[in-house]
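REVIEWER CHECKLIST
Item 1: Sequence provided? yes
Item 2: Single chain? yes
Item 3: Sequence as submitted:
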Amino acid sequence: MSLLDQLAEARIQKAQQEGAFDDLPGRGKPIELDDDSIIPEALRAGYRLLKNAGYLPPELQLQREIREVEDLLAQTQEADERSACEKRLHLLRTRLAESGRGTSRLLELGRYHDRLLEKWQGD
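Item 4: Structure as written out by the authors:
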């Protein structure tokens, strides 16, 4: 352990003894960390930054809208509504195909794609 590490550890222990950490929010509760184990390590910081800023890449936004329309279509019984959903679905799929990003290598990883969409839908 380097001298700097030893100094930092000594200050942390002193602060603990003085009760500096006693009133922190979430004390005694487990830390909830995002599971980013499926994201390549080199991309994790960038993805977390984008997520925290509320940014959803256009291709993921289109994928999410496609899933929403597919779900709506599966629940719709009336012919007029089904027709409108089918038109919307076709439009969204066309936009995704034209973007050139709809079949990116990262999105082809089904597990990653599904979990990423779930996380953004949950926010």
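Item 5: Key structural point noted by reviewer: The chain has a mean pLDDT of 79.
Item 6: Recommendation: ____
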